[in-house]
Write a structure and sequence with these properties.
Blueprint (H helix, E strand, L loop, with lengths): L5 H10 L3 H14 L8 E5 L4 H16 L5 E8 L4 H13 L4 E5 L2 H5 L6 H19 L4 E4 L3 E4 L2 H4 L2
Parallel strand pairs: 1-2, 1-4, 2-3
Antiparallel strand pairs: 4-5
Length: 159
C-alpha cells in the first residue's frame, strides 16, 4: 500500500483524531461569532510555528467544507530570519500544501538596539506590517494564531 502524503495525514488527523479538542471548538467559534462571512478575504498570518500552521490548515479545511464563500491568503512576514529558519518555514508550508506569500521587513534590524520594551515595539511593528500587507492583498480580515480572526480596521492601521 502506497504511503499517503504527509499533508493528507495532517488534514485527516485534524478532522478525526482532534475532532473534539480542535476541530469542533474551532468551527463552533467561527460560527458562533460569525467570524467569516460570504465575500470575506482573510489574510492568514503565519509565523512558522505549530499554532499558526494549525490555524492555516483549519481554515483550509473550513473553506473546503463550508457553504460560506470566502477567500484565503496565507502570508508570512520575514522580520529578518536566518536563512535556515526561513527555509524550514517554506519547506513546512510546502509539505502541508499551504501556498504562502512571504514578504520581507527589517523589524529585527530596527529593534536590535532598543533596550526598553523591544518585544512591545516588535509586536506593534509586526502587526502594522501584517495589516498593511493584508490591505495590499485586498483582505478585509486577518487571522492570527493568538487572536484567531480580527476584522481589519482601516482607521486603526493608520495610527
Amino acid at each position: 500500500m502506497k504511503q499517503e502524503a504527509p499533508r493528507i495525514n495532517i488534514e485527516r488527523s485534524i478532522i478525526k483524531d482532534y475532532r473534539k479538542t480542535i476541530w469542533k471548538p474551532f468551527v463552533k467559534g467561527i460560527q458562533e461569532y460569525r467570524m467569516i462571512e460570504d465575500g470575506d478575504r482573510v489574510a492568514v498570518c503565519i509565523s512558522g510555528g505549530k499554532d499558526s500552521m494549525l490555524l492555516a490548515k483549519c481554515l483550509q479545511q473550513l473553506k473546503r467544507q463550508s457553504d460560506t464563500k470566502f477567500e484565503l491568503e496565507f502570508i508570512i512576514m520575514d522580520p529578518g530570519y536566518q536563512a535556515e529558519n526561513r527555509r524550514l518555514i517554506e519547506e513546512n508550508a510546502a509539505l502541508m500544501n499551504i501556498p504562502v506569500r512571504i514578504f520581507d521587513s527589517d523589524i529585527f534590524n530596527i529593534v536590535v538596539d532598543v533596550t526598553q520594551s523591544p518585544c512591545y515595539l516588535c509586536a506593534r511593528m509586526r502587526r502594522g506590517y501584517l495589516y498593511s500587507h493584508a490591505k495590499e492583498l485586498g483582505c478585509n480580515k486577518i487571522a492570527l494564531r493568538h487572536h484567531f480572526l480580527e476584522t481589519y480596521d482601516r482607521e486603526e492601521s493608520q495610527e
